[in-house]
Amino acid sequence: MGDVLTADDMEPLARGAALLGAGGGGDPYIGALMARRALQAQGPVDIVSVEDVPDDAVVFPVAMMGAPTVMVEKLPSIQQVTAAVDALAGHLDRTPTHVACIEAGGVNSTIPIVAAAALGLPLVDGDGMGRAFPELQMALPALSGVMVSPLAISDDKGNIGILETVSNIWAERLARTATVEMGCSSIVSLFAMSGTQVRECFVPATLSGCVRLGRSIERARTFESDMSPVATVLEQMSAQLLITGKVVDIVRRTVSGFARGEARVEGAGDISDGPLILHFQNEHLIAQRGNRILATTPDLILVVDKDTGEPITTEALRFGHRVAVLAASAHPRWHTPDAIKLVGPKYFGYDTDPVTATRPKNQEMS
Amino acid sequence: MGDVLTADDMEPLARGAALLGAGGGGDPYIGALMARRALQAQGPVDIVSVEDVPDDAVVFPVAMMGAPTVMVEKLPSIQQVTAAVDALAGHLDRTPTHVACIEAGGVNSTIPIVAAAALGLPLVDGDGMGRAFPELQMALPALSGVMVSPLAISDDKGNIGILETVSNIWAERLARTATVEMGCSSIVSLFAMSGTQVRECFVPATLSGCVRLGRSIERARTFESDMSPVATVLEQMSAQLLITGKVVDIVRRTVSGFARGEARVEGAGDISDGPLILHFQNEHLIAQRGNRILATTPDLILVVDKDTGEPITTEALRFGHRVAVLAASAHPRWHTPDAIKLVGPKYFGYDTDPVTATRPKNQEMS
After folding, report:
1. Which residues of B touch A136 (CB under 8 A)?
2. Where are the domains of chain B?
3. CATH topology of domain A4-206
4. Which listed site, A20, B75, B245, B336, has its alpha carbon 20 to 30 Å from A250?
C-alpha cells in the first residue's frame, strides 16, 4: 500500500479491522465487498496521514450504526452512505475536504472508504477509537470536546434526519431510536471536525495498520511461515493469550438496537478453572474465568480462529468453534479517568474496575 | 374579535377548540394559559383569513406532538415552540411570513398563537383538519399532495431534529419515535406551504369560529339564555345527540406515544340499549351501542358536560361524569375515498365502514 487504498487492500484491511473490532463493529468482509466495488468503479482512494491533514480541513467521519446482527444482512447502498455526508454538508453549509473513520473496527473501517470513493475525497489514515465501541459518544474526539452532533442519519429507504442535540448522550439516544425505527441499521455522519482537531484526538495510522496486520496473518498461513497466525496476532498487537479452546455455549439477543449476549469457551488443556466467559454488547466487554476477571473494556478482547487466526465477530461465533481468545491494550487515552467513565465496565453495568490484560514474559504460542 | 387575537380570546378559543378536538388534541386550557401569557407579553396577534393570504406567502404550521396525557403535564416553553419554527426556516433557508394551525382541535389551536406572538408573525385563520387527528399525515394538505416533511422537531431539553422523509407515513414514524424518546411530547413544524396551497387545502375560519363557539357556550350558561349550553353546541355544530348519561367505566393506556382506551356512558333514560361505548386513540374514533355503530371517524364524536356544555377531553373523562355525547360532521373533504383510507375506521383497526351521524329532524334538547 502506498498513499492510496485499492480494491486489493480491502481483504487484509477487513481482517485487521475485524481484530480491532474486538468482536463488534459488524462483519467487515461485508463492508469490504462494498468498498471493493466502489474502488473498482471509482479508482483508488487517496489516504492522508493524520499529520498531513491541513489545519483548516473540513473532516466528516461517516459510520454505520445499528446491531451488527442486522448490519450483516442489510448492506447499505453507496447512495445511502453519501446521503448522510451530503445531508451533514448541507446542514452545516460546509463542503467536506476529507472523509474519516470514527471507528477502525469492523464494518466502519470500510464504510468511509465507500464514501471517499463515491465523493472523490481523500480519507484520513486514522480513526476516533483505535477499536470499535457500541455507542456514538464512545470516541476519543468526545473526550477532547468535539460534539457528536450535528449529526446526519440516512436509511435504506431514502429517509434523512439531522440532529442538533444538547449533549452527546442525547445524540446517541435520538439516533439510536431512529436507527431502530429505520430497521436496526443506518448510516451516520457526525463529529465534523477540523484538521487541527483530527490531530488532537485521532488514533493515527489505524487503516494502514489494519492492512499490514491483515497481510501478516495471510503470510503466517503459508508453508514458509515459521510463526503461526495466532502468534502473529499476539506479536503484532502486543496481545495476551487468555485461552485456547472450544465455544461450548452462546446466547445472543437484539436489545434496543444492540446485539447483547454471552459466550463460553472451554479450555483445551487444564479445565480446572472452568470455562472462559465472554460478555458482549456488540463488542466483547468482559472476559472472566470463574470469579476472576481477566480483561475488560476499554481493552480489546478478541476471538480468533485457533488455526487460521481469522477474527470472529460476536454474531459469527458458533458452538464448536475452535478459538483463541486474546486481550490487547487499548490506546492509552482510553485509560484516563474520563475515558473510563465513558467506556469502562461500570458504564455497561458490570460492577468491576477495569482490568488490563498484561502480557506475560515469554508468552509462547506454537 | 376583530383582525387580531388577544389574551381575552384565549378562553373561548380553547373551549371551541376542545370541541373540535373530539376528545383529543390535549387540554386546550393549558395551551390557552401559555398563549395568554405570550399575547400579554407581545401584544395581539394579527389573524389573516385564508382568502387574504398572499399566493407567495411562506406558511409554517406548528403543533405539539405526543400523548395528551403527557402534554397536559409538560407544557412547552415559548423557546421550544419557536425553536421548531426556526429550525425549519434554517433548514429550508426560507423566512416564514405566516404561522398556521395544522389542527384546530385541542392544544394545537393555541400553540401556533404562541409561535406567532413570539415571532411577530401573522396567523392564518383556518387549519389543516377542522378537527384533531392523532397522526401527522392525517391532515387535508396531505390529501392535496403537500408533504409532512421537511419537518423540524424540538424538545424541552433543547434538542432539535430535522426529517426529510420519503413518505408521510415515514415522517409520522420517525417523528413519533423521536417524540417518545424525548419524553412523549415535542413541538413540530411541518407541512410548510405557500398561500396558494393554504387556500387549496385549509379549512377556513376555524380559529375565529372556535372563539365564536366558545363565547356562545358562555352566554348560554347565563340566566338570560333561553337555550341550554348543550343545545347551543348542537345547533352551532349541526351536531346530533347520541346519549345523555353518566360515565360508568373508563380504561386508558399510553401505547407507542398515544393515549388509547375505551369509555362507557350509561343513559339516563331508557337503558335497554345498554351503555354507549367510546373507543379512542387520543381522539374519540367510534361510538357504539350494543352492536350498533352510531358514529365513526372521520366525523367528530364529542363529550361535553351535561349542564355546562364544557368539552371534556379523553384524558379528563372520569367515572361519574354526567355528560352528553354528540356527533358532528367532519369537513366534506374528509369523506372522500382517499380521506377514508387515511383516517377511516379501518385505518385504526376497526372492522367497520364509516358511519355518519345524521341529525334527526326536530332534535330537541332542553
Report:
1. none
2. 4-206, 221-343
3. CV3147-like fold (3.40.1610)
4. A20
